Amino acid sequence: MGMTIEQLAKRIGATVHGDGGGVVDRCTGLEQAGSSDVSFLANRKYNKLLASSGAGAVIVSPTDVQQAPDRTLLVADDPYFAFRQAVVVLHGFREHPVPISGSGCEAVIDPTAVIGKDCTVYPMSYIAAGAKIGDRCVIYPFCFVGPDAVVGDDCVLFANVTVYDRCELGNRVMLHAGCVIGQDGFGYATHEGEHCKIPQVGNAVVEDDVEMGACCVVDRATVGSTRIGHGTKFSDLVAIGHGANIGPYNLLVAQVGIGGSSETGRYVVVGGQVGVAGHLKIGDMAKIAAKAGVADDLPGGGEYGGQPAQPFNQTKRGFVAMTKLPEMVQEFRKLQKRVAELEKQLESVAAVRSGE
To answer: Is residue 319 part of a domain?
Structure first.
C-alpha cells in the first residue's frame, strides 16, 4: 500500500531529509527505481548511482547525506535494516494461499499424529505416526514429516521438504523446497575391503528462527544430535555432516559443506563453496571467504581465506603473488639462461687455466 515518505520514515525509524510529502508504494534498487519507489544505499560502490537514481526517496546513512543534499533522503543509522523494514511495511511477507479442496488427493495424516491449531497441510503431504506439528504451521505438497518428528509453532515447510523420524524443528523455522533434515550421516567402517554401514541412531535438531534455502541437507548424528543453532540462516545447497554443531546466528552462503563433528561459534559467517573438514572448531565471529578450505581449527574474531584457510591478509598476499606468476616465470627462465651462460664461461676459463 502507498504512504507518504514522512509516514514511512516514522514506521522504519528514519528521519526525512527533503520533501516528506511524496507518496511511495514499492521498494526497489537504485537503478530501477521510479518516483513512487523507495531504494537504499548501503554499499559505497553504488555511491555514484545516488544522484542519478529516479527513486522518490533513498535510505542512506548520516554520512552519505552530503552526496545528494538536494534530493529526498531517509536517514537511518543502519540503512540496510531500515530498507528491510520498508519492505515489510510496503510489501509484507509472503502469504500462503489456501489449498484447493476436493482434488481427490488430500494429505495423509496418521491418526496418532498431533496437528496444532490453525495449520495448513497441503494435499499429497504425509505426516507419520507420532509426529507433532505446532500451531499455525504451513506444510506444502509432497512434504514428509517422519515418525515421532517434532515441528514447532509457526513453521513453514515448502514443497518436497523431508523431516526424518525423531528429528526436531523449533519455532518459526522456514525450510525452502527440497530441504532434508535428518538423513543418515556418512558413516561407514571399512573392514576387509568392504564399507560397512554404521547405523545412524541419533537425530537432527534445528532450533528456533532458522531459515534454510533450497536443497539444504542436515545429516542426523551417529549418536546424539546434529544441531543448528538459534537464528542461523543458510543459503541454498548447504550440507551439514553428522554430529556437527552449528552455533547461533551463523550465516552460511550457498554450497558450503561442514564436515561431521565440527563446531562453529556464535555469529560465524561462511562464504560460498567453503569446505570445512570434520572434527574442527571455528570460533565466535570468525569470517571465512568464499572457496576457502578449512583444514584446522580457526580462532574466533578473525578473517580467513585460501586453501588451506589462513588469516586473510596472508591469503591476499598469496593472491597478489599469483597474479605475478607469468612475469616471475619469465624472469626465472632468463636467470636460468644467464646462469647457463656463466657456467659455460667458467668452464672455458677453467679449461684455459688447466692448459697453462
So the answer is: no
Gap between the Cα atoms of 25 and 9, Å rounded: 13
Residue pair 203/182 in contact (Cβ under 8 Å)? The answer is yes
* pLDDT tens per residue, range 245-299: 999 999 999 999 999 999 999 999 999 999 999 999 999 999 999 999 999 999 9
Domain that residue 333 falls in: 324-356
**Same domain? 125 vs 233:** yes
pLDDT in tens, 39-82: 999 888 888 888 889 999 999 999 998 888 889 999 999 999 99
- Cβ neighbours for 73, distance < 8 A, ≥ 6 positions apart: 16, 17, 18, 57, 58, 59, 60, 65
Residues 302 and 333 in one domain: no
Question: Cell for 31?
Answer: 537503478
Amino acid 37: pLDDT: 94
User: Given pLDDT bands bounded at 50, 70 and 90, which one contains residue 97?
Assistant: confident
CA angle (211, 213, 219) in 5-degree steps: 80
Say whether 67 sits in a helix, a strand or coil.
helix
Q: Which residues contact 10 (CB under 8 A, 6 or more apart)?
A: none
Q: Residue 228, Cβ neighbours under 10 Å: how many?
A: 30
Long-range contacts of 156-163 (CB under 8 A, 24+ apart): 156/96
| CATH of residue 155 | 2.160.10.10
Assess whether 147 and 85 both reside in one domain: no
Q: Find where cell 539444504 sits.
A: 216
Positions marked catalytic: 242
Q: Are residues 14 and 157 in the same domain?
A: no
CA 260 – CA 346 distance, rounded (Å): 61
d(CA 36, CA 55): 7
What's the CATH number where 66 sits?
3.40.1390.10
Rounded to whole angstroms, the Cα distance separating 228 from 157 reads 16
**Residue range 157-183: mean pLDDT, rounded:** 98
